[in-house]
Amino acid sequence: MNATAQSDSNWPALPLDAWQDTYDTLKMWTQVAGKIRMTLSPKLNHWWHTTLYVNSHGLTTSSIPHRGGLFEIQFDFLEHQLEVQTSTDSKSFPLAPEPVAAFYARLMATLRSLGIEVDINTKPQEVLDAIPFEKDYRHASYDRDYANRWWRILVSSDIVMNEFRSRFIGKCSPVHFFWGSFDLACTRFSGRPAPPRKGVITSEAYSHECISAGFWPGGGPVAGPAYYSYTAPQPPGIADEAVRPAAAFWHKDFSEFILMYEDVRRAESPRAALLDFLESTYAAGAKRANWDRAALERGGF
What we know:
Elements: H1 3-10, H2 16-40, E1 53-54, E2 58-60, E3 64-66, E4 69-76, E5 81-86, E6 90-94, H3 100-113, H4 144-165, E7 176-178, E8 183-193, H5 200-205, E9 208-216, E10 226-232, E11 249-251, E12 256-260, H6 261-265, H7 270-288, H8 293-296
Helix pairs in contact: 4-7
C-alpha cells in the first residue's frame, strides 16, 4: 500500500454534510449507552465514569459493574453490530437505519434478557431540541461507510493522542469519548484548583485548571471535522500565542485553537501534524497560565 492509500485508509475524508444525519443519530445512540454506564458506575472526577473508549472494532463502555459481575456495551463499526457482553453471556443486534426510539427499546430489552435492569434519564444532553429517547423518531439514519470512516479517524487520533498523553506525568485524563459533546478528548491538569463555575456539569468538569485537546466532527461555525485545544480558565494573551502547524488558528467564537481535520489528513505526516498541534497548543496554554512544566512533563522526548 502506497503512502497516499495508507493515509486515505487511516485518515479518510469525512465531509460533514455527507453524514450529518448519521452523525445526529449516532450522537443519540451513544448517549443511550453512555447513560447506562453513568448510571451503574461509581462516580469519578470530571465525569470520567460516563465516557466511552475507542477500541479495535469501535467504541466501548468498558466494563460496567452489575450484581457482582461485569458487562460491556460495544458499538462494532467493522461488523456493524451493537454487542452486549456479560461475564457469562453475550447478545448482539445489527446497527442499521432505525429511529432512536427503536434502538433504545432494543438495547434495553437486550439488557433485560441478560438479567440487567437499569433506568436512565432519557433526555439527551447537550442538544438544542432534546427529544426523549423513547419518543425520538426523527433521528433514524445509519450509513455504514461513514460510521466506519468516523471510527477510523477516532482510531488514528486515539493513537496519536495517547502518544501525546504519555509525555505528561501530572494528572491527565484517559483519551476518551464524551457522548454529549461527541468528541474524543485528552485533558492535562496543572494540579491547582480553578475558580468555581455555576452548573453541576461544568463545576465538576472544570474544578481544576486544565488544558484539553480533542477531535470533533464539526458543526455550527466550524463546517467540518476539526481538532481543538483550549485552556481553562482562559489565561490572558493566549490568543496571541503562535502555534503549529501553520494551518492552526485561534477561533474567536469558541475561544480555542482549531486545526481542521482536512489539513491533518492532507499533511505529509498526519501523525506529525497532529502531534505538533497538540504540543504547541499545550505549550501556549501552559506558558500563559504559568504551569510548572518541569514538574509536570517527562524528559527525554
